[in-house]
Specification:
The chain has four helices and six strands; from the N terminus they run E-H-E-H-H-E-E-E-E-H. With 152 residues, the protein is α+β, with helices and mostly antiparallel strands.
């Protein structure tokens, strides 16, 4: 990971990485899991870099008739570009593919609301990038199943 890549300052998204966590946002703004990741990063624990979309985006999404808040897509693209630069990996592309975990969250835990979708970015074309092919195909199978059950 390149610690020299400063995270972008964004309106809806909080980025975090070792030595580069933003101000201490509230649990209500980031949800429990996101808040914990930022807090662990700020405490110096070895947390991989990532970003959290604020919980208010969900409320704005429903208030706008299921439309994303203006500017959110551009911010996600900026945050993802930062994450790729910070890790030296590219989402869904070899030779060192970046895969991410996507999870919904709230300030108060809501069991059963949504599971984490792991390995977003994994694709069959990346099989040669992984040393353990059996593990790769198992992970891809689990990703497709999880995506189908959780998202679709």
């Amino acid at each position: 990971m390149s610690a020299s890549v400063a995270p972008p300052k964004l309106r809806f998204i909080h980025c975090f990485a070792p030595g580069a966590a933003e101000e201490n946002p509230s649990k209500e703004a980031l949800g429990g899991k996101g808040y914990s990741l930022v807090a662990m990063t700020r405490a110096g624990l070895p947390v991989p870099p990532g970003f959290v979309i604020e919980t208010r985006c969900c409320a704005e999404y429903y208030q706008a008739g299921r439309a994303w808040p203006a500017g959110l897509e551009a911010e996600i693209r900026k945050a993802l570009a930062w994450l790729e630069a910070a890790t030296g990996r590219t989402l869904g592309r070899g030779p060192r593919p970046l895969t991410v975990a996507v999870r919904s969250g709230a300030a108060v835990s809501m069991p059963g609301m949504m599971d984490t979708v792991l390995n977003v970015g994994l694709r069959p074309e990346l099989a040669d990038c992984y040393p353990d092919r059996e593990r790769f195909w198992r992970d891809l199978r689990d990703y497709v199943r999880s995506y189908g059950e959780t998202v679709c």
